[in-house]
C-alpha cells in the first residue's frame, strides 16, 4: 500500500479542516446520530446538508457538473477520515448519495440528472432504496415485487421492508421484476418512483431502541410513468452492481468510525471509576483496538487496489470482507460498553448502541452474504 499524499491532497485536507472548524458546531455533533422520533433534529441535519452542499463539501467524489469536486481517490480518503474524526453528521441521504446517485449519473437521462441530483445532495428531497423484501433480504435476485407495462406506465405491485427513511422519502430507487420468465437476476428492472403516487403506503418500523428510521412499503397497483426507468429494461441487476461499487474510499469510514467510538468509550470508562484498572476490561479493549487496526489495513488494501489499478473484483471482495469485520467489531465494542457502563447516567447512550449494534451484521449486506462474496472473489472457492 502506498498512501503518500502529494501537496495538493494535503491542501485539500487543510481546506476541509478549516471549513469544518468554522462551520461544524457542538450542537450539530450532538445531533449526528438522528432518531426517526425527533423531527427537530431531522430538520437541523437537513439544513446542515444544504450548508455542506452549498459550500461544495457534500459530495466531493461527484463530478463538478453535479455539484461535487471530482475528488481523487486520495482526496476521498482524506475527506472520509477528516469528516469522521471531526464527528460531522452523515448525510441524511447517505444511501442516495453513495449508492443511488452514481447509478443516476451513469444511466439516468439528462432530465433526471439535472432535476434530482442537486436536490438529493442538499437533502431537499429525501431518498430511499427499495431492495429488501420480506422473503428477499440480501438476495436481490429473489425479489417478487412486480411491474407490468401498461401503455405509458408500469403498474407496480408488491412489498418492501427495512427501507431506510421510507416514510420520509420523496423518491425511491425501486427494484422490480419485469420479466418473470427470465432467470432470476436477469428479469429485474430499476425504477425511480415518486413516493407520493397513489397506491404507495409507507409504515414506520420501530426498532429495538425505539427509533423509527426504517419503513415497510406497500405498493398497490401503483402507476409509475415508463420514463421513470433507470437503465435498460430487465437490466436492474447491472444497475444495482454499479450502484454498490461506486465509492472508492468509503471503506475508510468503517475503521475511522470505530476508532472514534473506541476513544469515546475509553473516555467514558475513565470517568466511571476504576474500570480501566480491571485486567479483563483492559484485555477486551486491547483486542478491539487490534481488530480495528487490522480492519484499517484491510480497508486500505481495498482502496489501494482501486488507486493502483487493481482488480475491481478483488477490491469489491475485500470491501465485503471489511464490512463483515466492521459489524463484528461494532458488536464486540457495544457489548463491552454495556457490560461495564450499562445504563448509568450520561453513559446510557451505550445501552442504545448495544441495541442498535445487533443490526450491524445485517444492514448493508448480511454477514452470510458478504462471507459468500469473500469466499468466491477473494479465496476463489467454488459457488455452492
From TrEMBL:
Organism, scientific name? Mycobacterium gordonae
UniProt domain Acyl-CoA dehydrogenase/oxidase C-terminal: residue ranges: 234-379
Acyl-CoA oxidase/dehydrogenase middle domain residues = 128-221
Its cofactor is: FAD
Please name the taxonomic classification of the source.
Answer: Bacteria, Bacillati, Actinomycetota, Actinomycetes, Mycobacteriales
Signal sequence bounds: none
What keyword terms does UniProt attach to this protein?
Answer: FAD, Flavoprotein, Oxidoreductase
Sequence ranges assigned to domain Acyl-CoA dehydrogenase/oxidase N-terminal in this UniProt record: 8-122
- A GO molecular function for this record? acyl-CoA dehydrogenase activity
**Pfam families referenced in this protein's UniProt entry, alphabetically:** Acyl-CoA_dh_1, Acyl-CoA_dh_M, Acyl-CoA_dh_N
What's an example GO cellular component term for this entry? plasma membrane
Gene3D superfamilies recorded: Acyl-CoA dehydrogenase/oxidase, N-terminal domain, Butyryl-CoA Dehydrogenase, subunit A, domain 2, Butyryl-CoA Dehydrogenase, subunit A, domain 3
Family assignment? Belongs to the acyl-CoA dehydrogenase family.
PROSITE patterns on file: ACYL_COA_DH_1
Can you say what this protein is called? Answer: Acyl-CoA dehydrogenase
Amino acid at each position: 500500500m502506498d498512501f503518500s499524499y502529494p501537496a495538493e491532497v494535503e491542501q485539500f485536507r487543510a481546506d476541509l479542516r478549516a471549513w469544518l472548524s468554522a462551520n461544524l458546531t457542538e450542537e450539530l455533533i450532538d445531533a449526528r446520530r438522528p432518531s426517526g422520533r425527533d423531527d427537530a433534529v431531522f430538520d437541523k441535519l437537513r439544513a446542515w446538508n444544504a450548508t455542506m452542499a452549498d459550500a461544495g463539501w457534500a459530495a466531493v467524489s461527484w463530478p463538478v457538473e453535479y455539484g461535487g469536486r471530482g475528488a481523487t481517490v486520495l482526496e476521498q480518503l482524506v475527506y472520509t477520515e477528516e469528516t469522521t474524526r471531526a464527528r460531522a453528521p452523515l448525510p441524511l441521504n447517505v444511501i442516495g448519495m453513495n449508492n443511488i446517485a452514481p447509478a443516476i449519473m451513469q444511466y439516468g437521462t439528462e432530465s433526471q440528472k439535472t432535476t434530482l441530483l442537486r436536490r438529493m445532495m442538499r437533502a431537499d428531497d429525501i431518498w430511499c432504496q427499495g431492495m429488501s423484501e420480506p422473503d428477499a433480504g440480501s438476495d436481490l435476485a429473489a425479489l417478487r415485487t412486480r411491474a407490468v407495462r401498461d401503455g405509458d406506465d408500469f403498474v407496480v405491485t408488491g412489498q418492501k421492508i427495512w427501507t431506510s427513511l421510507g416514510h420520509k422519502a420523496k423518491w425511491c430507487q425501486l427494484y422490480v421484476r419485469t420479466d418473470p420468465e427470465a432467470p432470476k437476476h436477469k428479469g429485474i428492472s430499476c425504477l425511480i418512483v415518486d413516493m407520493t403516487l397513489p397506491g404507495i403506503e409507507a409504515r414506520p418500523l420501530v426498532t429495538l431502541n425505539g427509533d423509527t428510521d426504517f419503513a415497510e412499503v406497500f405498493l398497490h397497483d401503483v402507476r409509475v410513468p415508463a420514463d421513470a426507468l433507470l437503465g435498460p429494461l430487465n437490466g436492474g441487476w447491472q444497475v444495482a452492481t454499479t450502484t454498490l461499487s461506486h465509492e472508492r474510499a468509503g471503506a475508510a469510514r468503517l475503521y475511522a468510525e470505530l476508532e472514534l467510538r473506541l476513544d469515546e468509550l475509553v473516555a467514558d470508562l475513565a470517568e466511571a471509576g476504576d474500570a480501566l484498572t480491571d485486567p479483563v476490561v483492559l484485555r477486551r479493549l486491547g483486542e478491539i483496538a487490534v481488530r480495528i487496526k487490522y480492519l484499517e489495513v484491510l480497508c486500505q488494501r481495498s482502496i489501494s487496489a482501486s488507486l493502483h489499478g487493481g482488480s475491481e473484483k478483488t477490491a469489491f471482495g475485500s470491501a465485503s470482507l471489511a464490512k463483515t469485520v466492521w459489524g463484528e467489531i461494532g458488536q464486540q465494542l457495544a457489548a463491552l460498553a454495556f457490560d461495564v457502563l450499562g445504563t448509568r447516567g450520561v453513559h446510557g447512550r451505550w445501552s442504545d448502541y448495544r441495541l442498535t449494534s445487533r443490526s450491524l451484521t445485517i444492514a448493508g449486506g448480511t454477514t452470510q452474504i458478504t462471507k459468500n462474496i469473500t469466499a468466491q472473489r477473494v479465496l476463489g472457492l467454488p459457488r455452492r
